[in-house]
TrEMBL record:
Protein name: Adenine phosphoribosyltransferase
Main location: cytoplasm
EC numbers, comma separated: 2.4.2.7
GO terms, molecular function: adenine binding; adenine phosphoribosyltransferase activity; AMP binding
Keywords, comma-separated and alphabetical: Cytoplasm, Glycosyltransferase, Purine salvage, Transferase
Subcellular location: Cytoplasm
NCBIfam families: apt (TIGR01090), PRK02304.1-3 (NF002634), PRK02304.1-5 (NF002636)
Reactions catalysed, as given in the entry: AMP + diphosphate = 5-phospho-alpha-D-ribose 1-diphosphate + adenine
Amino acid sequence: MPEQVRRALTDLVHDVPDYPEPGVVFKDITPLLADHDSFTAVVDALAASGRDADGAVVVDKVVGMEARGFILAAPVALALGAGFVPVRKAGKLPRETHAVSYSLEYGQATLEIHRDGVAPGERVLLVDDVLATGGTVAATRELVESCGGDVLGVAVLLELTFLPGRATIGDLPLRSLGQV
């Protein structure tokens, strides 16, 4: 991992206790996003997950999960020359969707993807800010597969190792830039 990425995660990601509810420590990434050099380094590091050992792009689409996943996934898609597809909370997409409901670390949620967001056979990289319980990633994988896509891996800014995210996503290759 480049030193600039390590520094960005250490210096520019701030803990916010008891947000959005008591007992949760929220990882505020907005200072990292506001620093151009750090943001660029993080996007480049996440985009490496969509390349093979020779640097060739191996994905057709990058899927970002609402909401902070959008912020990271869209520039990763641009860096890879791939399309970006948002996975949104229920009721936010204007056309026909596939939907999946799942549990997250502090509640329940339903995610949706446009039915034509990923074409059958397209290779997909999932990008999000934090891997916690793994429910969001597992639900997103299910959505991509319902479209006929093939999820090649997941790239996240941070992995919360005290939660079962890695176990929940099973054999799906995971690249986390930092672990807490």
